[in-house]
Amino acid sequence: MSGPRPVVISGPSGAGKSTLLKKLLKDYKGVFGFSISHTTRDPRPGEVDGKDYHFTNREAMQEDIDKGEFIETDEFSGNLYGTSKSAVQDVRAKGLICILDVDIAGVRHIKETNLDPIYISIQPPSIEVLEERLRGRATETEEKIQSRLEEARTDMEECNEPGLFDIVIVNDDLDEAYEKLQSVLKEEITKVQEVIKS
Ligand SMILES: Nc1ncnc2c1ncn2[C@@H]1O[C@H](COP(=O)(O)OP(=O)(O)OP(=O)(O)O)[C@@H](O)[C@H]1O
Ligand SMILES: Nc1nc2c(ncn2[C@@H]2O[C@H](COP(=O)(O)O)[C@@H](O)[C@H]2O)c(=O)[nH]1
């Protein structure tokens, strides 16, 4: 499919991906579109089905996976997550920059496809800060916090693997991290803005 390059955002749970993406989507209305993933986890307070995720159950999701409807899926912290082909096509059909928020296993799966996105890793300044953020968000049980921190240790080690990401952004100061994110995406943003103007 032609159009702007998609963007894959990855990084440990609690690093600040959603915070940065919400700002980006708000500041660049009509430029970006979010690929709405499927998940078997329960919605958090305030999350909306069909907006934040397609909340589903394991049986239904497995059936759709077996039908070949997903680009990639992964088991993360006891739940199934996945990007459906239609989630990406819906955004790209509108000429928008498609943003995918996936874990590091998802990044590796996407590398095997012909999507050709820009790969960005958002990292916390340290595991201690990450733990504080996860606890501060107050959305996970103690067991889930521990399992997410375990996944985070692997992510923090693997993110600097040569060729895996185009850029690793450390989200310490939010404004600085957002500046870096915008600057990596500038070329694609400009392309879409020029199409809008023409
Ligand atoms: N630079 C920052 N400084 C301080 N707090 C931050 C910063 N960035 C994000 N946070 C806070 O950290 C918490 C986790 O952020 P967020 O939910 O965006 O993480 P995430 O990477 O999207 O996690 P997940 O993958 O679990 O969805 C939130 O409470 C958010 O407000
Ligand atoms: N491989 C995939 N990973 C995904 C997808 N959607 C989200 N995620 C990742 O899951 C964890 C946890 O997310 P949370 O919303 O439960 O906190 C996080 O790292 C996301 O990036 C997906 O479609 N595929």
Structural overview:
The chain is of the alpha/beta class and 198 residues long. It has a single domain (7-197), classed as P-loop containing nucleotide triphosphate hydrolases (Rossmann fold), CATH 3.40.50.300. Helix content is 44%, strand content 20%. The protein is built from seven helices and nine strands. The chain has helices at residues 17-27, 58-66, 85-92, 104-110, 127-137, 142-158, 174-197, and strands at 7-10, 32-34, 38-39, 54-55, 70-76, 79-84, 97-101, 118-123, 167-170. The strands form two sheets. A five-stranded parallel β-sheet has the order 2-7-1-8-9. A four-stranded mixed β-sheet has the order 4-3-6-5. α5 runs antiparallel to α6 (142-158). The longest helix has 24 residues, at 174-197. The radius of gyration is 16 Å and the shape is globular. The chain starts with 6 loop residues before the first strand and ends with a helix. The relative contact order is 0.21. The mean pLDDT is 97. It binds adenosine-5'-triphosphate and the ligand Nc1nc2c(ncn2[C@@H]2O[C@H](COP(=O)(O)O)[C@@H](O)[C@H]2O)c(=O)[nH]1. Ligand LQESDW3C is lined by residues 13, 37, 41, 72, 74, 76, 81-83, 101-103, 105-106.
Low-confidence stretches: none
Query: Roughly what is the average pLDDT, rounded to an integer?
Result: 97
How many strands, which pairing sense, and closed or not: the largest β-sheet? 5 strands, parallel
Identify the CATH architecture.
3-Layer(aba) Sandwich
> What's the alpha carbon Rg, rounded to whole Å?
16 Å
The fraction of residues in strands falls at 15-25%
Strand arrangement within the widest β-sheet reads 2-7-1-8-9
Helix content: 40-55%
Tell me the span between the first and last alpha carbons.
21 Å
